[in-house]
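EI: anyone free to look at a 64-residue chain?
SC: sure, send it
EI:
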Amino acid sequence: MGIAHEGFSTAVLSVLMGRHVRGGLEDNLYLDHGVFAANGQLIERATRIVEDVGCAVATLDKTD
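SC: here you go
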C-alpha cells in the first residue's frame, strides 16, 4: 500500500490497474485518521479493498 494517509487510496488504484498490493505497519501506522492500527487490521482492510473491486486475494499457492 502507499505511505500514511494515501495508503488505502493507493491500494485501490493499484488493484484497479492490475497490480499487486502489500501492506503492514512498515507503511502505515493508522487504520483511520488518528486511530492506530494493528497489522492484522491493515491486512483485513487491504483484503476488503481487493475483494470489493472484484479481484482475488493471493493464497500461498499463488505466491511461489
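EI: The chain has one domain: 4-63.
SC: 👍
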